[in-house]
Fold:
Amino acid sequence: MTHMKKCHICQNNFERLAKAHLIPDSFKKISGEFGKTDNHLIRAGIYDAKAPKVQTLDFDKEILCPDCDNRLSDYDEALKVFVETWAGSSSRALSVSGRAHVVRFSTDADMLLAGLAVTLFRCSISSRCTSVDIGTKYENEMASLLGERAKLPVPSSFSIKLGGVAPDPEQLELILIDPFRVKTENCYIHVLIAYGTIFIAKFGQQPWPTSFDALPSVASGEQAVNIAVTSLDKSPISDFLKVTAATHRKKTV
Structure:
């Protein structure tokens, strides 16, 4: 007897589901443009110049049917184009004083919100990703919005803050770290670092932790976003990254 598998979006049963990438597969195209031609991306070990290359862009064959997976491609592409464009932008440079500053960067804010929300949704519903958990409530809300083909499949309580990482001599800012969840000031947030962009996301109505006050939020309906540019070691998430790097090194020793 064939074991049927249920799609998390349409809720229909199938004999076989799609090979759904948790992080947009198109991100590997970005890595090639920055000298990593083997399509391997560095994750964790962000403070270690010799951090090992590991295969990321994990996939899961147990979460989405082919049709629902394909319908997410536009959001994946929007996220990829934003990251790719920002990574190569001259706006990433620090100010003459070396201090953090905010730049206005053209993009479709709604598609950026949707792109990150979809990525975190896929990671959260996958048993292969243990670092992301948006909660059953928001998994169900995302699935419902995507199933209804909502114009903007983003919960009203979802918000993003953006940081931009200035170039450094070793190009450690041009890496990808798998999204992870941390708790700070009694609030859970998710962090994704991709090629010079720091995405910090929050589901829920609780206020943003004060430690992120310096980072601008993404406003829905806009055709541009504000990005706070700083060096990686002075970003609001530097302490979290050190913990992530240390954890990774312990696992690989």
Q: What stands out?
A: The CA atoms of residues 18 and 95 lie 46 Å apart. The first strand starts at residue 5 and ends at 6. The chain has one domain: 5-252. The radius of gyration is 18 Å.
